[in-house]
Amino acid sequence: MIYEQSIREVVIKMPFELLKLPYSFDALEPVIDAKTMEIHHDKHHAAYIAKLNDAIAKHPELVNKSVEELLKDINSIPEDVRTAVKNHGGGHANHSLFWEIMTPKSGKPSETFVSEINKVFGSVDKMKDLIVANGMGQFGSGWSWLVVSGGKLKVYATANQDSPLMSGDIPILGIDVWEHAYYLKYQNKRDEYLKNWWSVVNWETVERNWENVQN
Ligand code: MN3
Asked: Is the dihedral of CA 91, 156, 165, 83 positive or negative?
């Protein structure tokens, strides 16, 4: 009985699980093809979660923390699992955001949000250009971000699965520039992927992420 109970606890406490996509694999066609979405979500994201759970299992004191808490406080994570939490926790957080900020019904940012974007970047198009340029400039794998940093919108790229949370920033939009995110359809044409990506951006969610930081 005790054995069964402990198994049950492990199952309940296993903190991270793969959520279903909020749309079908082919919903973002032709910008992102169904096969890429399926492999990206079911294989890549699932693997980050499995490896994050493996790392956390070695340190029961980490079990009840959210992935955001783990990343914000990355330097306090025990050294033997710190790199695993950075890479796989980052992978989990980054992809969870990525799925949510895409949609087949892109919409438009509100006037309030646009005026904040204009204040910082000049225009929405200029902001997009910077995010594309940062994605192009990221050598190898990484992400191009729109974050809130000290209350202000900011763009930059990170390598690998490094999360802006690790530098105290809040990511509100991030584009995956790992080859697994676009290679089947775009091959070496990362610029085309980055430019096309804007037609599947979920402005409503990005804006909600921005508002949540203010409150
Ligand atoms: Mn990815």
From this structure: positive
According to the model, what pLDDT value does residue 202 have? 98
| Calpha distance 112→25 (Å, rounded) | 32
Can you give the residue ranges of every domain in the chain? 111-214
Which stretches in the chain have pLDDT values below 50?
Answer: 1-13
The pTM for the full model equals: 0.92
DSSP 8-class letter at 201: B
Say how many Å lie between the first and final Cα of the chain, rounded: 47
pLDDT tens by residue, 1-11: 344 444 444 44
What topology does CATH give the domain 111-214?
minor pseudopilin epsh fold (3.55.40)
Q: How far is the CA of 119 from the centre of ligand 1 (A)?
A: 31
- Whole-number Å distance, alpha carbon 176 to ligand 1 midpoint, is 6
CA separation (Å) from 68 to 39, 64, 71, 90? 24, 12, 5, 9
- Look-up: residue for tokens 């949609």? 103
Instruction: Kindly give the distance from the C-alpha atom of residue 112 to the centroid of ligand 1, in angstroms, as a whole number.
Output: 31
